[in-house]
Write a structure and sequence with these properties.
Elements (H helix, E strand, L loop, with lengths): L31 H9 L6 E2 L1 H10 L5 H16 L4 E5 L3 E6 L4 E7 L13 E4 L2
Keywords: Cell projection, Cilium, Flagellum
Organism: Alkalihalophilus sp. As8PL
InterPro entries: Flagellar_put
């Protein structure tokens, strides 16, 4: 006698993601650099390196968004004139900025910068 076997439909498992299809987690980044870039809303806004951010935090240097905007504009202007690395001097801070990369490389307190030698700079920006 034939026992009747019924074939059950096989439910396939979902196809695994390829590496390209893996959904990325949304990470909330509230670093100083991200907040700064979001506040400025400038296409040529300056990025602040991790080193510069640490220096600013350690030394208690604060630069408001209006001053960052003015610095960004002056660095963009210097870049148009062929400046690649500049020294930006403000009333309370001195910044070494790569105009080529739109990146603040390091930051010093204005008093600390008095006795320093800055090398590899081909332009200086004095800010009021």
């Amino acid at each position: 006698m034939n026992k009747g076997f019924q074939i059950q439909p096989i439910h396939s498992l979902p196809k695994p993601f390829s590496k390209k299809e893996i959904p990325k987690r949304q990470v909330t980044d509230t670093s100083f650099q991200t907040v700064l870039n979001n506040q400025l809303h400038l296409p040529n806004s300056l990025k602040v390196s991790r080193h510069a951010t640490e220096r600013m935090d350690k030394r208690g240097i604060e630069i408001d968004s209006a001053k960052w905007k003015a610095i960004s504009e002056k660095v963009a202007e210097a870049k148009q004139k062929g400046i690649t690395d500049s020294l930006v001097i403000t009333d309370n801070a001195t910044l070494v900025v790569s105009a080529k990369n739109n990146t603040v490389i390091t930051v010093l307190d204005r008093n600390e910068a008095k006795a320093q030698i800055f090398t590899n700079i081909n332009g200086t920006i004095l800010m009021d």
